[in-house]
Design a protein that fits this description.
seven-stranded mixed sheet; single chain; alpha+beta
């Protein structure tokens, strides 16, 4: 999926409209993420009605105000507007973490042809490997909300960094499509307790070593006082 935008320029929908144009920047923002390509136009009434729905959906999955760990998700607006002014109007309504292609970038039309987008609004959902999860997820987002992201995540076998594997899977043939996600578990308090226990054990061991050294010194001192010297 990252390959779709290597050697391209993506723009961040912030006040400075920062450009991401290096391979490192593109990989950093798109790698290991589910990607939403939002095709729309300011002239399309249905598009304008869908924008607030998409914004709420995206906020609940990415905004720290709604979720502790933002999901591995990226949103790119592919404008089908007739003018740059129209594109800017739509961008003003979209979430500030949305990425977009500049209006004069011909790649917008190439993407439209690549995914055979005819009706808008359209949200093409891509796995991290670039394969298609959904050619148009507008209805899913509208009716299922963030639950549809969970379905995409399981289908894409996307592993979040906030998870840890709690067991080994020796036989890959026994895994179902959702096993890698369903069997993932959050780090538990047990890990923290183990760390605390280890620190206390090491500290106690060091303390015992010091006590043994002190006892040895005391014995040597007493023997010396009694005229008993250790044999060499």
């Amino acid at each position: 999926m990252v390959d779709l935008f290597l050697n391209r320029v993506l723009v961040e929908n912030n006040s400075d409209q920062d450009e991401l144009n290096t391979e490192r920047e593109i990989i950093g923002i798109l790698e290991n993420r589910i990607l939403l390509l939002f095709f729309a136009s300011d002239e399309c009434e249905r598009c304008q009605k869908f924008v607030p729905v998409l914004n709420r959906f995206f906020k609940k999955l990415k905004d720290p105000a709604y979720i502790e760990y933002p999901k591995l998700l990226a949103l790119i607006y592919v404008s089908l507007d007739q003018s740059e002014e129209q594109q800017e109007k739509t961008l003003n309504e979209l979430h500030k973490r949305t990425l977009f292609l500049a209006f004069d970038d011909p790649y917008r039309k190439e993407l439209q042809a690549m995914f055979k987008v005819k009706d808008i609004p359209a949200v093409v959902v891509l796995r991290p490997d670039g394969s298609v999860l959904s050619l148009n997820a507008v209805q899913d987002i509208s009716h299922l909300g963030t639950d549809c992201f969970r379905n995409w995540q399981e289908s894409a076998e996307l592993v979040e960094r906030t998870f840890m594997l709690n067991e080994e899977f020796d036989d890959p043939n026994l895994r179902s499509a959702t096993d890698p996600v369903r069997r993932l578990k959050y780090k538990t308090e047990d890990d923290k307790r183990k760390k605390r226990w280890w620190k206390l054990w090491v500290k106690g061991k060091d303390g015992n070593d010091e006590e043994e050294k002190d006892e040895t010194r005391d014995v040597k001192r007493k023997n010396a006082d009694n005229g008993i010297w250790p044999r060499r």
